[in-house]
Amino acid sequence: MALRKVKGNLERMFDKNLTDLVRGIRNNKETESKYIAQCMEEIKSELRQDNLAVKANAVAKLTYLQMLGYDISWAGFNIIEVMSSPKFTYKRIGYLAAAQCFHQDTEVLMLTTNMIRKDLNSQNMYDSGTALTGLACFISSDLARDLANDVMTLLTSTKPYLRKKSVLLLYKVFLKFPEALRPAFPRLKEKLEDPDPGVQSAAVNVICELARKNPKNYLSLAPVFFKLMTSSTNNWMLIKIIKLFGALTPLEPRLGKKLIEPLTNLIHSTSAMSLLYECINTVIAVLISISSGMPNHNASIQLCVQKLRILIEDSDQNLKYLGLLAMSKILKTHPKSVQAHKDLVLQCLDDKDESIRLRALDLLYGMVSKKTVMEIVRRLMTHMDRAEGTMYRDELLQKIILICSQNNFQYITNFEWYISVLVELCGMEGTQHGSLIASQLMDVAIRVVAVREFTVGQMALLLENAHVIVGPAAARSSIAEVLYAAAWICGEFSNLLSNPKASLEAMVRGKVVSLPGHIQAIYIHNMLKLYACIMAQAEEEDDTEMIEEITSLLQERLPLFVSSGDLEVQERASCILQLVNYVAKCHKAGDKVGTDLALLMSGELNPVAPKAQKKVPIPDG
Amino acid sequence: MMQFMLLFSRQGKLRLQKWYIAHPDKLKKKITRELITTILSRKPKMSSFLEWKELKIVYKRYASLYFCCAIEEDDNELLALEVIHRYVELLDKYFGSVCELDIIFNFEKAYFMLDELMVGGEVCETSKKNVLKAIASQDLLQEDEAVEGALREFGLY
């Protein structure tokens, strides 16, 4: 027996402990996985020993390996063995391993119930504490149901250390086993008046979390929390209480009115940024929820905006970010108060931090007015010039369009200006928002008749300069989509073109075949429209030279498209080629077909509302 | 409530992971990988907050270690930063000018410290003194057991 023990001790002398393992891994960087595989084998053999100290050492090593990404769930049973050790040292290691790798579906979890119960009720405070902390990480619905009472008993422990932990654990218990909430709640409420401020704070924490999910049930506690708020100096607790009130005020406007004064006082007096931020956020939430017409209303908003301005002006990036975030909330209900700080927000567009720039952009979207839209867009476009080659530039582009098009172009007074802006945006290589620009161009062209001629002129220019737009960077972007719009607009409103023949020539140019199929298809169709338009005019003037020129132009160029790989392009090109050939035949026979051709294209296309389809009655049958 | 806290080095090596919501291993790995990549790609002057899926991430670099935690939409970001700072202060006091190596070789102690500061993702003890006192008492408990164990081995207990 003694010999076995000595032999065992000798073997154990060579067991790696945790430090050895960590050092070993660091010293074997090139052969790490091989080394770890070897260590795993050693661990497995150690776990087969009877000795709990050895097992605990093995489990500690496993916990480290788990952090490196290795699966240790196979050792579940061993972990439980170590958890059940009477020695605190080993128990601690077991619970740590459990917290790291057990979860709701871990099968061995069901073996732990009695052991955990024993630990919870242990005479040793730290055994109990370890169990409470570990349980908070891996508690399952079964464990919650079975251990709820034991946890509740600890609420009345003589040691505040345990009262604190058990209060916090209760939240997890409620999450996994909601039926425990009703019987436990009165006991939890008592803890709000616990002599130990830490326990009080823990109770506030838990009730705040519960109230956020279900504010109605906790409205009755408002007076208690009010008293706590006005008497406490513990910032951690104050923040939680104030947040709780933020969740309660939508349900009880009178509460909101009572809160404005103490919150405003806190805003004035506190030096803790986290508390200030929480107060401002809650004031905003309160003022959004209570109806306006309150005398203090404006003053409080002004105070918040003022304090937020200080945050945004601070050199600390975090405060800037949060200031902008809170401003966005105020913007929704009190846009005028925020608009006064337009200059500050525009300044933030220059910030090195992209997340701050994006926040500022978001704010700008809501700060626009008829008077300011042009200036803001101008500033944004300057930024775009500077932000070449980044995702941010594309964000700016999208924002510019969103700002201008919001609410049916509510803020645009000069549509010619807007069209020029859109055309300028077409010059932005590498954008992913080509279709957005295209749809805007079409929208304005169709709906704003007053500037249609200007628009058509610009689109003709775009067509002629297509090779500039579809440059080398085009493959990675969707900028070619604008040509879709240009072709369509020129085709549909060809009567406004100053030189339809030039536009037709621009459309049949060779480079067009390298455009995406759907764009080519539009080109072809609109070639026909232009052809018809020019034809009608030419026949009236008996300009046979023109007729021959455009007919042979199409006859020459369309075959290129007929042999396209894209089916749609092929089909349309063949159709139109046949039509043109037929027209040529008619002209040879001396017939005039101009007016008939034009009839094909007559009728204005109007934009249709998205819900219009529903209004069409379903036919019988 | 805090959903998890991760500590990792500038090379992306994980030094500590505390999860207050029990996800299966595969999901934890995926989240960790994605988040580490995202944070390591941020420039030094950027703010400590970012939005990630439905969570808010709060992170701060202390020397060679990134401390990163995930909080829920309603939580206060500045408060989370203070929790991180409090944790760093505690580690610093305990290890005496803590460095990354301390956490590598004593990772279980780092976990134990965190467990005194937070339970279930909520702050448990706001007093630095109390946290350190509890840790010291538990260390003492371990030492006593070790001494006792050694004495037993030699038949002297």
TrEMBL record, chain A:
It comes from Meganyctiphanes norvegica (Northern krill). Keywords: Membrane, Protein transport, Repeat, Transport. Residues 32-581 form the Clathrin/coatomer adaptor adaptin-like N-terminal domain. It comes from the Eukaryota. GO terms for cellular component: AP-3 adaptor complex; axon cytoplasm; endosome membrane; presynaptic endosome; terminal bouton. Belongs to the adaptor complexes large subunit family. InterPro entries: AP3_complex_dsu, ARM-like, ARM-type_fold, Clathrin/coatomer_adapt-like_N. This is AP-3 complex subunit delta. It is found in: Endomembrane system. Its main location: membrane. Gene3D superfamilies: Leucine-rich Repeat Variant (1.25.10.10). GO terms for biological process: anterograde synaptic vesicle transport; Golgi to vacuole transport; neurotransmitter receptor transport, postsynaptic endosome to lysosome; protein targeting to vacuole; synaptic vesicle budding from endosome; synaptic vesicle membrane organization.
From TrEMBL, chain B:
Keywords: Coated pit, Cytoplasmic vesicle, Golgi apparatus, Membrane, Protein transport, Transport. One of its GO terms (molecular function) is clathrin adaptor activity. Residues 1-140 form the AP complex mu/sigma subunit domain. Its main location: membrane. One of its GO terms (biological process) is intracellular protein transport. It holds the Pfam family Clat_adaptor_s. It is found in: Cytoplasmic vesicle membrane; Golgi apparatus; Membrane, Clathrin-coated pit. One of its GO terms (cellular component) is clathrin-coated pit. Signal peptide: none annotated. Adaptor protein complex 1 (AP-1) is a heterotetramer composed of two large adaptins (gamma-type subunit AP1G1 and beta-type subunit AP1B1), a medium adaptin (mu-type subunit AP1M1 or AP1M2) and a small adaptin (sigma-type subunit AP1S1 or AP1S2 or AP1S3). Belongs to the adaptor complexes small subunit family. Coiled coil: none annotated. PANTHER family: ADAPTOR COMPLEXES SMALL SUBUNIT FAMILY. InterPro entries: AP1_sigma, AP_complex_ssu, AP_mu_sigma_su, Clathrin_sm-chain_CS, Longin-like_dom_sf. This is AP complex subunit sigma. Transmembrane segments: none annotated. It is a peripheral membrane protein.
